[in-house]
Amino acid sequence: MSVRILIPTPLRAFTNQQAAVPVDGATVGDLLRALTDLHTDLRPHLFGPDGTLRTFVNVYVNDRDIRQLQRDRTPVHATDTVSIVPSVAGGSGAAATEGPTLTRDEVERYSRHLIIPEVGVAGQLRLKQARVVCVGAGGLGSPASLYLAAAGVGTLGLVDFDVVDASNLQRQVIYSTRDVGRRKLEAAAERLTALNPAVRVVAHETPLTSANALDILRDYDVVVDGADNFPTRYLVNDACVLLGKPNAYGSIFRFDGQASVFATKGGPCYRCLYPEPPPPGLVPSCAEGGVLGVLPGLIGTIQATEAIKLILGVGRTLAGRLLLLDALSMEFRTMTVERDPACPVCGDHPTVTALVDYDQFCGVVPASTPAVKVPEITVEALKAAMDQHKKIWILDVREPREFEICRIPGSTLIPLGDLPKRLSEIPQGADAPEIIVHCKMGGRSAKAVALLRDHGVTNARNLTGGILAWIDRVDPSQAKY
Ligand SMILES: [Zn+2]
């Protein structure tokens, strides 16, 4: 019975560079003896002089360590996968050989690349000639661009038009505290150039739109999608498919991350995975839902890894696979993604052959029906009504964690999701006060006003701009988030 043993890269020198070796045996011990009979140079790396397995080599059957099973007597079956997992210190002290077309400084800087067979001088030159663009210089773009610059990618484009905000610093590690208020691309270019002066940073200080996407992305070999909204995701995807540029995709939310590679030759695209965006408001953005600060570090670094593999043409990229990360359980899973022959962009008979209006496609600006329209009140009018002791009742429909950060004095907290079952708490009747509903920016509270109206509460108004407008224009002493 033949079982596959996966060989880690450091040991492939002893297996003729094979990543997997099929061998016969009924137990792990049988397999390892058969493996080292087949590749005798491997034996001293796995076994000590006394014939016992070396302690720094761990062996797994599927995802179980054999020390938790029956050690080398652990039985194996044809469907099992056996993995050898040696301890790896990282880095190496070996000397580099000088390449003909890298400068002396470059040889020193990239020496840890030059001694990896998969990179070497030829690969480093490929990186030097490569052009990668990061769409978004935020949570994902920060680690991705830092590692790409460090790796020696010759031309690095950045697309963003934002200004550094204090709330960015929890995850956007390319920026420092002193950068708050600066233009992101100015600060990012300075940091990347300080890290590696040989990298040419190209700043595209503009929102990516249907009008400019093809012109901007056309000049690059690989696109790193670090967007934070659905219209830009679909825009980047469609532009990559139309241009034939691979897209190293990553997305994050709270503790969950995703990564893949789209729009490779014959591979699936983002629309094959998600043909349509969710309706606006169903999936909260990071600004509304939050994100663990280190998570974009993990996913953005994976995007940079995939971009580098695409440039070098080594390994197996995430094309055709979706990597899912749950940082709470720290589990990585990969799902298969297949190209959909009926995909409107990359399918056999594409119907999308030019860029469209992505705000409309994603429902951000509805084509015909306007968004929930409800009576509104400005923060100034609310402040005046409070000062005049008018009869008002302020309903805050945010989450308790948001309420802890800042609040309008005298407000009552009922999160939007709880509102339907807590309607009895809303003051009603002939002399009930006017109800002012607010949230962070006015979106959730507009839904709440509509919900109240549907349940017969007709004297409710939405606070335009939410508590952020209140803090900006009435009470700057409170913290924004
Ligand atoms: Zn597709």
Task: Please give a structural write-up.
This protein is an alpha/beta fold and 481 residues long. The chain contains 17 helices and 18 strands. The strands form 3 sheets. An 8-stranded mixed β-sheet has the order 8-7-6-9-10-11-12-13, sandwiched between helices. Strands 2-1-5-3-4 form a 5-stranded mixed β-sheet, with helices on one face. It has a 5-stranded parallel β-sheet with strand order 14-18-17-15-16. α6 (141-151) packs parallel to α7 (184-195) and α6 (141-151) packs parallel to α12 (295-312). The longest helix is centred in the middle third of the chain and has 18 residues, at 295-312. Bound molecules: zinc ion (ZN). Zinc ion binds at residues 268-269, 271-272, 340, 343, 345-346.
> Which radius of gyration do the C-alpha atoms yield?
28 Å
Category from helices, strands and their pairing = alpha/beta
Helix content: 25-40%
Ions, cofactors and other ligands present here are: zinc ion
Indicate the mean pLDDT: 90
Overall morphology: globular
Strand order of the largest sheet: 8-7-6-9-10-11-12-13
Strand content: 15-25%
Q: How is the biggest beta sheet arranged?
A: 8 strands, mixed
Nutshell version of this structure?
With 481 residues, the protein is of the alpha/beta class.
